């Protein structure tokens, strides 16, 4: 035993103690109200519907992207650096945008998909993470956090039916604290993701107590509500009306979903971190950070198959900088068609 091993062991032990807080606060955790018809199908069942028929009946959805800040990341997180298909120019650290999406549904109300990065301090710093496991530099203006941008649009957190969190990494759930500072807004997640967050050492997989903790109610989407659909396998028709679909997208985390919006003007796919960058889908390259690489690749294959079948589908990736370069903070991705004249 060397002279230096004891302090290292001690500090690691302390680090693990502070990381190992298994309780993420006094959450009220319940399944989401079964608003969808309980047409749970056996795993090998034929597809419930064709996407062509679903897309022929689009919903009046308004999707507004809020660019909440930028995080600094590279191949450890965004895309495999040692993959021969990865372009050289993606093998360096770069500032990438972190997005929250406000969704207005014609009959189901307002909801948020992801909450973006934590609010920045007055120096524009919103760093998160915990050394030595990971540490993510983050920058934003003080009025760029999700709550401030919603307020600028006249939306209060209590106007939201729920906040759906694709997965609980700090650049997606970082805005939860601000949203939950008043009356609690239900947080929608999958049973698998919530189980991962509540594992013994969640920081190993990128979950931080200070971001995920709190007392907000949690509503889990039950896998038994999933239906078999072409190209993507078992997916959840969130409201049972074909308007918003959650596509299990595990691999980067244990319970992440991607979301497909059946909007007028054409379907919109938000991959979240199943593909941080467009190159992941275009060149079939998994994210740099994965908890299960095979699952991440299988997820990519499903999204690639859906894209191949519907080339006009618009895709927004988790953190693709070229999709947001020079964009104002608020970007309308889908708006309802104006009513046709009499
Ligand atoms: Zn992530
Ligand atoms: Zn991310």
Structure description:
With 342 residues, this protein is α/β, with parallel strands linked by helices. 20% of the residues lie in helices and 25% in strands. The protein contains 9 helices and 17 strands. The chain has helices spanning 5-19, 51-55, 146-152, 170-173, 176-179, 191-197, 209-212, 278-283, 293-309; strands at 29-31, 61-73, 94-105, 109-113, 128-130, 134-136, 138-139, 160-164, 187-190, 218-221, 227-229, 233-237, 244-248, 257-261, 268-272, 314-317, 330-334. The strands form 3 sheets. Strands 1, 2, 3, 4, 7, 8, 9, 10 and 17 form a 9-stranded mixed beta sheet that branches. Strands 11-12-13-14-15-16 form a 6-stranded mixed beta sheet, covered by helices on one side. The protein has a two-stranded antiparallel ribbon with strand order 5-6. Strand 11 (227-229) and strand 12 form a beta hairpin. The longest helix has 17 residues, at 293-309. The model is unreliable at 1-23 (pLDDT under 50). The structure holds zinc ion (ZN) (2 copies). The site of one zinc ion (ZN) has 4 residues, from loops.
